[in-house]
Design brief:
About 75% of the residues lie in helices and about 0% in strands. It is mostly helical.
Length: about 450
Amino acid sequence: MADTTPDTQARPAGPASLAGDAGHRYARELERHLDWLDSFTSTALGVLAAASGIYTYLGVRTLLDDPGIWTTFAALAYSIAVSVGIFVFWSYLLRLLPAVRGAASRIGLLLTMGLGSVAIIAMSSWLNAAALAGGAAVETHMATTVQTYQTSLERAHANAVAGQSLSRDVARVRQSFQDLSEQEEGGTLSGFQGRGAVFRVLTQKSAELQGLETQLLGIEAPIEDTFAQGNVILSRMRSISVEAGGLQDRTVRFSEDAVELAGLITQLRQLNPAPLVLRAAQDLSDAVVLPELDGRTAQIQAGQSSTINAVLTLVAQRAATLSQAASEVIALPQPDEALYTAMSAADAVIVYARNFVPAWAGAISIDLLPAVLVFIIMVVQAAIRGGRGEGHLDTRMTVGELRAALAAAELLRPAAPPAAAPAAAPAEGSPPPRALIRPED
């Protein structure tokens, strides 16, 4: 007889079976790691959201000047809303984005994550940066303002000194007319010795230039005094920008000094005598009072007239020279309009963002760090799917889920029918029961 006993000996597993078992073990290992990490991921996310909310609160307080209770309540409400929004937003993405498999769904969630990140930066990160580096940004604004005022003060002083230095050109022209008048007094120019008409014309122009020179020399002391006062104020402003103490009080004192320094810069611009020299040079050639010729003979008068015409030509040339020198001074670059505008910490940290890249990086990172966790979980979930295969159905069950399933199965099991009561024993003396005889018997 042939042996019909089934062959119960296990067949050796093939390469595909071994690879599948290894993939399942790899997937189970990753799942165990994810289960352990998931136990504190929500807590860590809550800590990050709370930290961002605290710095957001500090940033909002820099924008609200009123120290009242409603201001505090408003800043607190805003920071709590930001913390809750960050926590809920990243909780959604941590759960949903790694779980989706379709390309369209994944792209849609990635675009949503990008839009939400921009919203978080707009409502929280810049306020966090203001809380981290707002004071330093305001001090940077002060230092930049001091540098601007110093440049304007030095340029205004340089222009005023250049205008005052025109006194040397005026003195040179005045000396030339004075020398000519001395020559005329000796009869060298017109041939008429004495203080005649030519002498009076030369003396007239020399006196005009003497008065202009006196004015220019008198401006030198006010220019230097104003410049010295401006340097004192600049030194005080530098000290205010770096000293310790409340930022609001320092800003007020800095603003007062800035206004005073702006007035001194304007005063230096007004002290520049170059426009005065330009107008005097034009009057030098235009406004000439010709004296009456006083020669005793017609020949002498003709000589005086010819000499006066030559003097007038010389006056026009000297006036053109002074006008050109004054125009060159006026054409010098003018000082910029130095105007200090007080900035809040939030505004300053945006204007001077390049100076505070680390603070901005920290402020943004504390809000967008969960995005890194989202990508990590996406990679791990993809590795788990690759280890198990796309057609695998997840049949994992924890101990708690197994207990719940057994309890549910026990509840769904139909109740057993009640057991039949045992037959009562026959009473003594009663006839025995008759046996039932089935037809087939």
